[in-house]
Design goal:
heterodimer; A: about 425 residues; mainly alpha; B: about 450 residues; six-stranded mixed beta sheet; globular
Chain lengths: ~425, ~450
């Protein structure tokens, strides 16, 4: 690899101060450090440094996203073929695997390209402007954003959302490591509030509107997500016929049964549907110590507790859903594993992480059930907890500070009496 | 009966080249150095000029702020040169040794009967007070302040550090005399020693509160021991001293001789013969590296790999150092697939679990070079400092308050209790490659200046 590095060395002068391509120094620098960890040695401090760096960390997070990405791609094709009656629910696994993957990839790949293209483009601009080197943070955000998008979202909307979130949620605060809100969720929230009409209804299944007008759609197929269906039951008595038919879809054998929801054979944002694929990613994050198991486990417990409390209340059909069914649907699992654990926007103290995670999970289920206009309670809950995280940390740290002050007072009292 | 404190947080970095328990006398060096920058907080005022003849124990310079604190020559010879840096800052006083062993003769004092003033005076004149450090601020101690207590660590836990039992073997009588003397100097809480829980060399020591410690590095750091045995509160001052210097103090008082002896742990993967070597403070490193010569590709560290200074092949053993470590320089770029961030990393030791080396047996030792293994970034990963920082202090928040020049915040978060060395493992583990120890040093300096 000496040869490759020699080539880089030979073109470096063009990009350095005074060279004709010096404006593109950031690009050169980021590509060079991508390929070669620089020969920087430690000065003025430790002489040896741990093998881990931010590139390795971010790479492992992306690796943890791969199961959700692959499954999501497949599932989008699967849902499309289901919607036009090409296949039936019973032959989910054994037919047309490549067709499903191709249909999914046809929509998912452009989303990934737009997300990275727009996001990294803005990062390069800001890095060049500020004379920083590029931070690795967006490598993960850029992959998270497509995974929380509905399949038929227009690409220009994604571009606008990415630009908004990178600039407003991150760069104005100082870039990677300085943001208060999770960047990917901010992009999703931007779409949700800026384009509510376009982002509801017939966007969750590939070409469902076209299929409908072309008469291809299977009878009775609504194209709604599980949470959308559930939201429609709120405000109606439990014994209402509409409600019982919706709730029937959540029983064993129904479209949104526990096993279908866990495996991910339901409509939804690209990466969020399969709890199983997400949990494989979670296992990698916990195993490597990169994702906080404290946040994940307390988030899960928070969601289950809220689900259980709703069971006790039982005021409408939505509330009677078993807690375990609640947490495998919608974005709960994806938010728990990949969003809530974002170290920059989460609570930073170890004790704070327990509180932060628990409240995040608790609020996710609460918002989803109490306010049917926001089926995606997870997004709102995590963004809200992002804002609250510094407050949680403040009280955790304050407890430590007052403990120290008490000790000092005790010592000075002892000195005075001695 | 002493109590045992178990330190759970921390980590042992498994470096290759641990010094064997054998001990040899280092060959006498031609040049010895006393380097003012080794003694943090000291502004030197010279007493000698180039060409002056000196003997062991002759004062070379004193501290401008505390003129009674003398810094003495370890050997007899001639002042070869005074090395100055930017703004004529004195970096070192070099002594060309004449190998005749002439020494200043100091009065013999029995610390059990002498009073505090006499002992302190002997210690100041005899040059041994130079090795006393104080908390807060982790700087050279001020003899005018009576410390609440004096703390001594009875073991080393840093990577490749020398074994204190080897270092103090046969010196326990001198050590006891030193403890007796320190007992006269310390205030209400006396002298504390922190010892390794299965270590017996200190069992006969009288006049000191012994606390036993178990656990990984930094359990041997005196700051960790203070925090767990008798924490420092705002407004208190305490002193710390290295156990070997306590024995050297015993020699000064009982024999009237200044002899800053160190049993140096000479090691590291590049050291041809890692072992313990008996030498004086300020010895030229050439006497301690077993003939190793490769200045370009080797880092010559005076001290341990986490806190030592880059001394270079032509450097000297630092005034407060008891260790010399030779590591390969990591100045070559690392290709991402073979040994960079995308590699399997079977040779990359990491405290995180992002490389598979954490699954390897605990006995496996690693060669580490001085490459930073990544570039400096903003804080991103959290929960990384806490597992290697055995203090009831929030390390990241403290670092951030220092970066923000928030004096009030630093005080509240416990900066008084820490020294830069206590953060060495945090700096090692940092994914964002932040210079944590330097930040802590800056914070301590800022606070000291603020408080006058």
């Amino acid at each position: 690899m000496k040869a490759l590095h020699n080539i880089l060395d030979s073109i470096r002068p063009h990009f350095e101060e005074g060279g004709k391509l010096s404006k593109f120094w950031v690009v050169f620098d980021s590509l060079e450090t991508f390929a070669f960890t620089p020969g920087h040695t430690n000065k003025n401090g430790v002489h040896i440094r741990d093998g881990v760096d931010l590139k390795r960390t971010m790479f492992l997070v992306i690796l943890a996203l791969v199961p959700a990405l692959l499954f999501g791609t497949w599932n989008q094709g699967h849902q499309y073929l289901l919607s036009i009656g090409e296949i039936s629910v019973s032959d989910a696994w054994n037919t047309m695997i490549w067709d499903k993957l191709l249909i999914g990839a046809w929509k998912v790949l452009p989303l990934v390209v737009v997300s990275y293209g727009v996001g990294l483009g803005i990062e390069f601009l800001f890095a060049g402007f500020r004379k920083h080197s590029i931070n690795e943070g967006f490598l993960v955000s850029g992959m998270l954003i497509p995974l929380i998008m509905p399949i038929d979202v227009p690409l220009w909307m994604v571009a606008v959302a990415v630009a908004f979130s990178v600039i407003i949620a991150k760069e104005v605060f100082g870039g990677t490591g300085m943001n208060i809100l999770n960047v990917a969720l901010t992009a999703r929230a931007f779409l949700f509030f800026a384009y509510p009409k376009q982002l509801s209804g017939e966007i969750w299944i590939h070409e469902v509107a076209a299929s409908k007008s072309g008469g291809l759609l299977v009878d009775g197929y609504t194209g709604a997500t599980a949470l959308g269906e559930l939201a429609s039951t709120v405000g109606k008595p439990i014994m209402n016929a509409d409600v019982t038919s919706v709730m029937g879809m959540f029983d064993a054998g129904g479209m949104y049964s526990l096993s279908n929801a866990f495996l991910g054979l339901i409509p939804g944002s690209i990466g969020e549907t399969s709890a199983l694929a997400i949990l494989i990613g979670a296992a990698l994050l916990i195993w490597t110590g990169i994702g906080s198991w404290k946040v994940m486990s307390s988030f899960l417990v928070g969601g289950l507790v809220m689900g259980f409390l709703f069971n006790l209340m039982g005021m409408n059909a939505y509330m009677t859903l078993p807690p375990i069914h609640q947490v495998v649907m919608g974005g709960f699992m994806f938010g728990m594993v990949f969003m809530a654990t974002d170290p920059v926007s989460a609570a930073q103290t170890e004790r704070g992480k327990w509180i932060y995670g628990f409240l995040g999970g608790f609020l996710s289920i609460m918002i989803r059930v109490f306010n049917p206009a926001y089926p995606e309670g997870v997004m709102m809950a995590i963004l809200f907890m992002n804002v609250m995280a510094p407050l949680i940390d403040h009280y955790v740290i304050q407890a430590n500070v007052s403990k120290r002050e008490k000790r000092a007072m005790l010592a000075s009292a002892q000195r005075a009496s001695a | 009966m002493s109590r045992t404190i178990r330190i759970r947080k921390g980590a042992n970095i498994r470096l290759k080249g641990r010094p064997a328990t054998s001990i040899v006398d280092a060959p006498p060096a031609a040049i010895y150095a006393v380097q003012p920058p080794d003694f943090t907080g000291v502004i030197p005022k010279l007493r000698v000029k180039e060409g002056d003849a000196v003997v062991a124990g002759s004062s070379l310079f004193f501290s401008k702020d505390c003129p009674s604190v003398q810094f003495s020559s370890p050997v007899s010879g001639v002042v070869k040169s005074i090395v100055r840096g930017a703004k004529r800052k004195i970096l070192a006083v070099l002594i060309e040794a004449d190998q005749q062993g002439k020494a200043e003769s100091f009065p013999v004092i029995d610390p059990k009967t002498a009073d505090r003033t006499a002992i302190l005076g002997a210690m100041l004149n005899g040059g041994l007070f130079a090795f006393v450090q104080q908390r807060p601020f982790a700087v050279a101690a001020d003899p005018a302040i009576t410390p609440r207590s004096i703390h001594i660590s009875g073991f080393n836990s840093a990577p490749l550090s020398p074994d204190m039992a080897v270092a103090l073997n046969g010196r326990m009588e001198d050590f006891q005399i030193g403890i007796d003397a320190l007992n006269q100097l310390a205030g209400s809480e006396g002298v504390h020693i922190g010892v390794r829980s299965n270590e017996t060399i200190f069992s006969g020591i009288e006049g000191a509160k012994v606390t036993q410690f178990e656990g990984p590095h930094p359990a041997g750091n005196v700051g960790v021991q203070i925090h767990h045995a008798a924490p420092l509160n705002k407004g208190e001052v305490l002193w710390t001293m290295h156990a070997e210097d306590v024995a050297n103090l015993g020699v000064l008082l009982s024999k009237g001789r200044y002899e800053p002896l160190r049993v140096v742990g000479a090691g590291g993967s590049e050291h041809p013969a890692p072992q313990h070597m008996r030498a004086l403070a300020g010895t030229a490193l050439t006497s301690l590296v077993g003939g190793h010569q490769d200045a370009e590709n080797t880092r010559y560290i005076s001290g341990d790999p986490l806190t030592g200074t880059d001394a270079s092949a032509a450097g000297y053993l630092g005034g407060l150092h008891h260790q010399v470590t030779l590591l390969p320089e990591g100045n070559e770029p690392k290709f991402l697939l073979t040994d960079g961030w995308l590699s399997p990393g079977l040779k990359k030791f990491s405290l995180s679990r992002s490389y598979p080396t954490w699954l390897m047996p605990k006995s496996k030792e690693f060669t580490m070079d001085t490459n930073s293994n990544g570039e400096e970034r903003a804080f991103v990963v959290t929960g990384q400092y806490e597992p290697v920082f055995p203090f009831d202090i929030y390390p990241v928040q403290l670092i951030k308050s220092i970066m923000a020049n928030d004096i009030d915040g630093m005080e509240k978060l416990g900066i008084y209790e820490v020294a830069p060395e206590d953060f060495a493992l945090c700096e090692y583990a940092c994914t964002s490659k932040i210079a944590v120890q330097k930040v802590v040093r800056d914070g301590l300096d800022m606070l000291k200046k603020e408080l006058g």
